[in-house]
Write a structure and sequence with these properties.
4 strands; two-stranded antiparallel ribbon; 7 helices; mainly alpha
Length: 220
């Protein structure tokens, strides 16, 4: 909806308040599951080859560690600035969100919480996580929990079903989505550092991101 002024009105007309959504005429499908989107638009699959689950956890940790480095570089007095002018989200909130994505995933796969649309968007309490260092330390707790989840997981196929706001889905779907979701925001944080004239500490490489179904554009 950032690039379409009428996008919000179209979304509400469908009776939907969650994004992403792909619409055609009077029909729509939630965009969380890319295979569902491909079928909706008449394609025989996306052509995307999912990474093995054991590679995905390694990539997710690499992304989260990179996010910690980037946040430690952010000037604390600029954390409340907007990430981009046309979206009401501060750098502080986005930084926290990267790790909250992982925490929300764990709440679903470990605690049985339905993956609701706002679960990954629970913001930090006012007056908390006011420095990049504090947010990075929060990241340490999420990374430790993710590693513990993976190490203790008996069925590492990740095909077990969990409840989400767009239906019962295999764990892998949410697992992959959470990984690339975190990675997309990590890419955006590098752009913020560049805007501040700061060279990002150990940028994510093409190899780091290979195999993740990331949006082509940085702000999609």
């Amino acid at each position: 909806m950032l690039n379409d002024p009428q996008g919000r009105e179209r979304l509400l007309a469908f009776g939907v308040r969650n994004v992403p959504v792909v619409a055609r005429g009077e029909q729509f499908v939630f965009g969380q599951n890319l295979e569902d989107v491909a079928e909706f638009v008449g394609l025989q699959g996306t052509g995307h080859k999912p990474l093995p689950p054991e590679q995905l956890i390694r990539k997710w940790i690499v992304v989260l560690r990179a996010t910690q480095r980037f946040l430690r570089q952010m000037p604390d007095d600029r954390l409340n600035e907007l990430v981009i002018d046309n979206r009401d989200r501060s750098i502080r909130l986005m930084g926290h969100h990267v790790f909250r994505i992982g925490e929300a995933f764990l709440e679903s796969v470990e605690d049985g919480v339905e993956y609701a649309v706002q679960l990954a968007n629970v913001p930090p309490k006012d007056g908390t996580f006011t420095t990049g260092e504090e947010i990075a330390r929060y990241g340490d707790t999420v990374i430790a929990r993710l590693e513990n989840w993976w190490n203790k997981l008996n069925d590492k196929s990740c095909q077990q079903k969990i409840k989400t706001f767009f239906g019962m889905q295999p764990i892998y779907m949410l697992y992959e989505r959470s990984t690339w979701h975190s990675a997309q925001h990590a890419r955006q944080l590098t752009a913020v550092l560049e805007r501040f004239g700061i060279e990002p500490d150990q940028r994510l490489t093409a190899d780091d991101l290979a195999g993740l179904p990331l949006p082509e554009r940085l702000w999609e």
